[in-house]
């Protein structure tokens, strides 16, 4: 187990800076996730922790030890890859045993260890097979087994569930979480799937353009996103953004498409242009007129099973809301939407930061 | 219809290429009289007499031994260097990779005759004419481009995550190469090894130039020198040719699958 510290970590590829001044620490035994769109630098960060990529500037420390110059071997980390990266010419047993073989551990000990891990992961009957004879989920388990067998200081996972089908992915999420609780090893996880990040992590860092946009617990990130990038990335379907203008400061009053709102904010924003954000799940749509309801036009109705998602036209803006199954909504019809004012978030229109 | 045509064409091409081979295998089994008789005899009756005479009279096994040493050592050295070079060229972020690969190809295009003179002078100064290394080293340089190209393209197709994974599991660069990458590139290694071996086994020109003493001559040169001023021992030459060809044919048959998968690797994603 180890704490991981990033101190002003910078990474360049040629003349392009892919990681800008990363300052962060990851706690002992924490399940920490880097999440962000592709190309945001999240895998690069993982490779830098592993020692597969050099660091252009700054320091990475495990506890008090600077690891910048250490080889992957000396860092004592284990990694699970998206493609599993199992050795095709070795059996499951040999794959799982490989890190211990490289450590020159005695054969008998390796055998009992491999069997223990295989038991833990339900691979016992597959030990003699080769990777190509396994299903995706089984390969994933072998990759996990190979990573956990030597009890590393840090456990790194690079989109380990992306190649699995949807059902298996949800299953493995729970399994990974359980495994983490049992082993209690510091885990750094990388994914582009915000739902995966939300469901497994103790803390999340949302990355974009090589910079951390926000770092916090899943709940903090969901409820109090730092800016429009985070707000739009976390949550599915993404948050609705509508241009608005602050008309009054005390009490705060916002004009949005001619509709007056009194949202609750952390700060005391000045008058001017803002963006109003409201999550689709907080916005209810009804076919009958409701008190305070805003008149809008239905454009698309999508079934989500227990309810429907409805795309609405509100003057020039398209927004998404939720409707019960009993609501009779047809594209083109007029309907009414409502949302609680305290759920509304305001963002600066220039910087995108939440105000 | 198309199928029949395909089989007929294949049959014709195969028979045409097989005729010389079958002819000298046949000749090797004839008696000296049958070899030159007109009209030709198609069913030989000499059994193995030509072989015995080639071995006893012309020291055939001595040439076989020389060829085995030269071709074997050439193959081992070439493959070892090709593995390391091919891997580096496939994986390292090098500036002039294209140029290096290109020049390798260009070098391999030089006609042998154009480098024969300088090679001979160098070997003479080193005192390596009529020595195994005197032939092995030119062979290694001549076969390296082939080996490097085959292996580089093989290593390029292997997923880079495997290396990352091996490094994290505690391998050094060399261990990663020899424990993970080389076993996975085995079809390529085999293909390259067999092609290099065949080249070194069959090569005639340099062997003739460099090995002037019978002690070090390889099979092709040895066979060529079977004929004396007044004799043309066709049966013995045919027997020796058979001995020099059959091992190659067997080798290719045995490793056929590997060679084919080697030559077509990367064509489709495994």
Protein described:
The complex is a heterodimer of chains A (355) and B (270). With 355 residues, chain A is of the alpha+beta class. The longest helix of chain A has 18 residues, at 166-183. Chain A starts with a strand and ends in a 7-residue tail after the last strand. Chain A has nine helices and 20 strands. In chain A, strands 6-7-8-3-9-10 form a six-stranded mixed β-sheet, with helices on both faces. Chain A has a five-stranded antiparallel β-sheet with strand order 13-12-11-14-20. Chain A has two domains: 4-225, P-loop containing nucleotide triphosphate hydrolases (Rossmann fold); 233-348, Nucleic acid-binding proteins (OB fold (Dihydrolipoamide Acetyltransferase, E2P), Beta Barrel), CATH 2.40.50. Chain A has helices at 42-50, 72-75, 92-102, 107-121, 136-148, 166-183, 194-200, 218-223, 228-233; strands at residues 4-13, 16-26, 31-35, 57-62, 65-66, 77-80, 154-158, 186-191, 203-208, 211-216, 240-248, 253-256, 259-261, 272-278, 284-286, 294-303, 308-314, 317-323, 334-338, 345-348. In chain A, a hairpin with a 2-residue loop joins strand 12 (253-256) and strand 13. With 270 residues, chain B is mostly helical. Chain B has one domain: Orthogonal Bundle (MetI-like fold). Helices cover 77% and strands 0% of the residues of chain B. Chain B is built from 14 helices and no strands. Chain B has helices spanning 2-28, 32-36, 49-58, 60-91, 97-109, 112-126, 132-157, 160-168, 173-184, 186-202, 205-210, 219-224, 234-254, 256-263. In chain B, helix 1 (2-28) packs across helix 13 (234-254) and helix 7 (132-157) packs antiparallel against helix 10 (186-202). The longest helix of chain B is centred in the N-terminal third of the chain and has 32 residues, at 60-91. Chain B starts with a helix and ends in a 7-residue tail after the last helix. The model of chain B is unreliable at 266-270 (pLDDT under 50). The interface between A and B is medium-sized, with 22 and 17 residues.
